[in-house]
Amino acid sequence: MSEILSRIHSPADLHQLSEPELHELAQEMRDELVRVLSIRPAHFASNLGVVELCLALHLTFDFSKDRLIWDTGHQIYPHKLITGRYKDFHTIRTRGGLMGYPNPQESIYDLFMTGHAGCSLSCSLGLKVGDELLGRTDNRCVAVIGDGALPSGIVFEALNNAGGLGKNLLVILNDNKMSICPRVGGLAQCLDKARLTSLYQGSKRHLHSFLSRVPLVGEMANQAMHQVKDGLKAFFTGGMLFEELGFRYIGPVDGHDLRSLRDWLESLKDQKGPVLLHVLTEKGHGVPQASEDPVTFHTPPVFEMVGPERTILSLKRGGSKAFTDAVSSAIYQVMKDDPQVAVITAAMCQGNKLEKVRTDFPDRFFDTGICESHAVAFAAGLAKAGARPIVAIYSTFLQRAYDQLFQEVALQNLPVTFCLDRAGLTGPDGPTHHGAFDTTYLRLFPNFVVMAPGDELDVVPMLRFALSHSGPAAMRYPKANLEKVERGVAPMELGQAEIFEWGPDGALIAYGSLFASCVKAAELLRKEGLELAVINARFAKPLDKPTLLRAVEQLPLVVTVEEGTLEGGFGSALLEAANSAGLDARHIIRLGLPDRFVEHGERSELLPDLGLDPSGICNTVRRALSRATENGESAPLRLAR
User: Fold this and answer.
1) Are 484 and 519 in contact (CB under 8 A)?
2) What letter would DSSP give residue 312?
3) Which pLDDT score, from 0 to 100, does residue 634 have?
4) Half-sphere exposure of 541 (CA within 13 A, CB side)
5) Which of 224, 317, 414, 480 is the most interior residue, by most CB within 10 Å?
6) Is residue 271 packed enough to be buried (19+ CB in 10 Å), middle (13-18) or exposed (0-12)?
7) pLDDT at 554
8) What are phi and psi of 545, to 5 degrees?
């Protein structure tokens, strides 16, 4: 039992604890993370690393009125534990339970639902300016951002704006030398330099007494002093960049020394102007396996306790092969076959399972960090030079590069291949991570080919087709175990669907990952005497109009099935095509994700809720055919021209 943690109903209760009790509370919080995460997979190492920082922030500020935003909110668990949600913490990442990210519907202490990196500074600055405009001048504003998110372009836009406005804003740089994988790039080297020294603690006055003893003589002394100061700061620390942007830089300081952190925050909370506090933490702190291997323990499989409490954890690994495995294997093979193929990822090497590609093809593997806009424009440059770039990225994160998709890729008609992982429902990660919108936002662009493999057998030929295509192409696939529909696989040709079977009573047209579910639904309905066609659409753009419109014209019912938003999705594309062809489309029914943000839960729970499992598909067909029979309808009629 967590004796102290169970007594914390709000951050105000923290002030009743002694220093020893606060340290015991920190351990109880880590124990609770271990306990819950021994039940289900969840973000782990990142949360272990911010326990003391979380406590120090809530002991220093009153965030019932002050403002706090955690950038990339997967590090929100300790915050939830001390803001009145401990009793429900066992429900985290389960359907109907606590969300694994900040959620304003859960608590007044969560201001934004943050699952994408980099936006905390912009939102915090907006909150500060908004509060002042509305007369709330006493509200303090704090943004916590990790070193992995720091290189994001929007962060520098916010730093530039905040430095120019000069508003009172405290930015906590949580530096643990990690994104999900180890951080990359020149900025990482700048931060590493700061870790090497404690000489410079951030304000110019700390260095002034030292510099005053430098033996400079003559008229050049005064002119040289400023240059010497800046030069020494640049040499000794990584804080020069922030100082030049208008921030007062403080640090680096120990992020696991609770007393020291409180002292620093107390001294800074009423400072005027923008301040950046550089805090050094250890990802996975307090659990040896997690600190030694923070990549694996970022979002590990379920744990099993195999030693004394607080010591050893064993990973329970599943054996199922996922779509991501099939795609990463296919990428590896095409890189072996073609030296012009290169791979770009935005800090998601592990998530996209590209570690072997990174190891074996280091000259053709590029991790840009959490910089999706740059990744896509960089890929466009590679393609323009004659290479064949693959951008391996999550569907929901590609949204961050929308303008580059338009201008640098589609407008130039460049052969960039996009492998969109986590397309569809991502399960416990919830609405910030569900890949709901990619079909819609990509098929709008001229020149783009938009595809989805129906099963495992489609993956390799679809990737090879994309790399042979003369323009941009995107292939979406889910965070799900592979399924295979046994058949003689039709060749992969531009805009060509695959007819799995034909039947007179209707058609199930699957776009992507629910092809196997449509086959199962057709098998169930066959036992009831219904013979339905099943079509693996493969392409949302260009559509296989001859095949799909034949079904619309000849069959009494057409049901499109997709694991993406209905608004503007594959089913909408078919409706548009039917309308253009002058066909009656009233018998087309679209199944997909509704026009709302789908909550978190296991994919196996969410699909039935949305009628997207075999049983739900069958029910849709039964209801539609029943209504048609009651209305005396037969085959669809062509509209009068």
Assistant:
1) no
2) -
3) 53
4) 24
5) 480
6) middle
7) 96
8) -60, -40
The pLDDT of residue 275 = 96
The whole-angstrom separation of Cα 68 and Cα 70 is 7
Contact 420, 426 (CB under 8 A): no
| 274 cis-preceded (ω within 30 degrees of 0) | no
Q: What is d(CA 90, CA 494) in angstroms, rounded to the nearest whole number? A: 48
DSSP 179: S
pTM for the structure as a whole:
0.83
What are the percentages of helix, strand and coil residues in the chain, rounded to 5? 45, 15, 40
Q: What is residue 313's three-state secondary structure?
A: strand
236 alpha carbon, distance to own chain's centre? 35
Q: Helix 120-133 crosses helix 153-165 at what angle (to 10 degrees)?
A: 30
Distance CA 379, CA 404 (A): 10
C-alpha neighbours within 13 Å on the C-beta side of residue 443:
26
What does the pLDDT read at residue 235?
Answer: 45
Fill in the amino acid letter for 280.
L
Secondary structure of 357-419 in the HEC alphabet? HHHHCHHHEEECCCCHHHHHHHHHHHHHCCCEEEEEEEHHHHHHHHHHHHHHHHCCCCCCEEE
Distance CA 49, CA 286 (A): 8
Is 562 strand, coil or helix? strand
Strands 417-421 and 388-394: parallel
What distance in Å separates the CA atoms of residue 574 and residue 580, rounded to the nearest whole number? 10
Residue written as token pair 């989805």? 452
What is residue 341's three-state secondary structure?
Answer: strand
For residue 501, the model assigns a pLDDT of 97
Helix H segments across 204-322?
204-212, 220-236, 240-244, 258-268, 288-292
Burial 295-316 (b: 16+ CB within 10 A, else e): bbbbbbeebeeeeeeeeebeee
What is the crossing angle of helices 51-60 and 19-37, to 10°? 130
DSSP 199: S
Largest pairwise CA distance in the chain = 104
The residue type found at 404 is Q
Asked whether the beta carbons of 372 and 393 are under 8 A apart, the reply is: yes
Q: DSSP character for 602?
A: -
**Residue 562: closest CA among 497, 508, 635:** 508
Catalytic residues: 283, 372, 400
Determine contact, residues 381/344, Cβ cutoff 8 Å.
no
Best CA proximity match to 15, nearest among 61, 48, 47, 64: 61
Flag residues of the chain having pLDDT under 50.
199-211, 217-228, 230-232, 234-235, 310-312, 635-641
> What is the residue whose two structure tokens read 């961050």?
400
Q: Which residue is it, tokens 């099939």?
A: 326
Three-state DSSP at 299 gives coil
